[in-house]
Amino acid sequence: MKEIDLHGALKKYFGFTQFKGLQEQVIKSLLAGDNTFAIMPTGGGKSICYQLPALMQEGTAIIVSPLIALMKNQVDAIRGISSEIGIAHVLNSSLNKGEVAAVKADIESGVTKLLYVAPESLTKEEYVNFLKAQKISFVAIDEAHCISEWGHDFRPEYRNLRTIINKIGDLPIIGLTATATPKVQEDILKTLGMSDATTFKASFNRPNLFYDVRPKTTDVNKDIIRFVKKYDGKSGVIYCLSRKKVEEVAQVLQVNNIKAVPYHAGLDAKTRAKHQDMFLMEDADVVVATIAFGMGIDKPDVRFVIHHDIPKSLESYYQETGRAGRDDGEGYCLAYYAYKDIEKLEKFMSGKPVAEQEVGHALLQEVVGYAETSMSRRKYLLHYFGEDFDEVNGLGADMDDNVRNPKKKMEAKNDVKLMLETILLTKEKYKPKEVVNTIFGNSNAMLQSHKTTEQPFFGKGKDKPALYWMALLRQVLVANLIRKEIEEYGVVKLTQKGNDFIDSPVSFMMSEDHTYSTESDEGIISNAKGAAVSTDEKLMKMLKELRKSVAVRQGVPPFAVFQDPSLDDMTLKYPISMEELSNVYGVGEGKAKKFGKDFLVLIANYVEENDILRPEDLVVKSTGVNSSLKLSIIQNTDKKIRLEEIAKSKGLEFNELIIEMQRIVFMGTKLNIDYHLDEVLDEEQQEEIYDYFMEAETDGIEAALTEFDGDYDDDELRLMRIKFISDVAN
């Protein structure tokens, strides 16, 4: 086919004068009748790769697509460029008999060029028999990663597509996906029986996107509100993993005057469509959604994508962040990460078949690696998709938090050599966890069965923590000294570069990893990025001195007056009235009344003397949901109802109830849980922990666990802290 025809057709049907990226080569391959596989990032113009050939050729192209909303979107777009409404049709479970007959008539008469079907529809014999008798130009499989059990959206129906296509005829196939690791690509080609396919892979680099990962604190909603308010009037998407969280976050945004709507599969179709339209038509600025939202939503000017919860795989993360900045303008991708979210996701997997669990765990480990890495996030992400990136000269090289705020680096040449030698000496049969256990000297059943624990190299690196070795392994992987074996997913093997390194080691500068607390911190936030970091050091110093003198006067530890995060928040908000002080993080009405007077006088004088403009708009309103929960907890503990019962009745995990109770006492309200403590700890034990908190410099649970060296568990210490704060501070 002449090139001019191709450009002429592009102009005729779509009004464009030139192709984007690899579109032209992909289309030529398909028009030549070759099996074709196209891997293009979100926003790269995948759909034209099958729409244009379908419009140019005789017959009907079958487009297999996973979502009804996505099909509808595309059918509307194609009908918009033609006078024939029958040019594109959908064939799925949403049609009645009359509608199905009309679709068939259009196909038979040759009007229909694109027929969108769900994979489930193709399993129906009547449809297969009908299509067998028609002139079909080719089959396109969109979102082809759904075929792979290694993909982020595995659909078993997709795995039978090859058999069904064979029944319809000997047809060229084009598979398209926006995300696919080398492992997924191999799986797709194998399952579709098209190992001969010509593969086109566009760069996955989106240089206009800024990647940022922040530790997730209990105050994540407050941080999100501050962030969104900077983008006033601009479009953004916030992803949460559960419907409950979607509703909660959307509500918090709404009461803080942000035009936000929720979107999840639990809403009826009418509401979902309405909310989607509000977002597209700019009647709403922010959509808070589960992953049910966004596939095929072509809104080019999304300025930010926030992950309230870290997703289950890097494919999902890439796909979802890819919805930002599709117009090549700025896109900010912010994710909140806490390891406890990963543990929650692992818990969800526990009921699934073992093979599925293994895949899920392997994908989650990649997410952990990305969230915790100190190297260029762009480089890490692109490496995951099998692409090299030059972090010095590459496009968008400085567009990530780790590059803008680099971590310290240290020489790790000898440790890398030790790691590579350990992998060789254990015959390259272990996954990262086992490699680290071997180096660190942590025995388990697997290492014992291979007699690794008896080897002289076992435990050779026990002078450094296991977390250090895991961080190093991730960086060695990205440096391409080792690779993960595709067939035995997760097993690490040396590359040629790795073998060369053992023979002649060279300098290896390791980035120090972020330290992420695994504490499910509920009110004790470290001044990590994402917490309300003090912007006024001078005021902070004065507040700390005042806190100390108030503590001495009251005979309590300073943290029992106000905690550091509360002081941090005061330096941001400069409260000068009781009402404003009650809106400070971790300060309720009770606490404000008990300790607040001196602090308000100090801040008011400071504001006046230094001529400070107070940011009143930073006051984040609560939805009132928490206040009804708070009231219920206070009433139930007053009635001495078992804490386990209270948690169950409120749909909370036990540790979530503890977090809520902590929140209540930290904000100045008394709670009496003596009846529960008397069941789990005797008088002497209670006294010992109580005395510890009275003398301690910090009320952090990590410090208490270290002090008691395993005598008490996490929950016992947290519950005693609740009693202590309630007694001495409220």
The gist of it:
The protein is α/β, with parallel strands linked by helices.
Give the topology, please.
Layout: H1 3-14, H2 23-31, E1 36-39, H3 48-56, E2 60-64, H4 68-79, E3 88-91, H5 97-108, E4 114-117, H6 125-132, E5 136-141, H7 161-168, E6 173-177, H8 182-191, E7 198-201, E8 209-215, H9 220-230, E9 235-239, H10 243-255, E10 260-263, H11 269-280, E11 286-289, E12 302-307, H12 314-321, E13 331-337, H13 339-349, H14 354-372, H15 377-384, H16 401-404, E14 409-411, H17 413-425, H18 432-440, H19 445-449, H20 466-478, E15 482-484, E16 492-494, H21 496-503, E17 509-511, H22 537-554, H23 558-561, H24 564-573, H25 578-582, H26 589-609, H27 625-638, H28 643-649, H29 654-666, H30 674-680, H31 683-695, H32 701-708, H33 714-729
Parallel strand pairs: 1-6, 1-7, 2-4, 2-5, 3-4, 5-6, 8-13, 9-11, 9-12, 10-11, 12-13
Antiparallel strand pairs: 14-17, 15-16
Helix pairs in contact: 2-3, 13-14, 17-18, 18-20, 22-24, 22-26, 29-33, 31-33
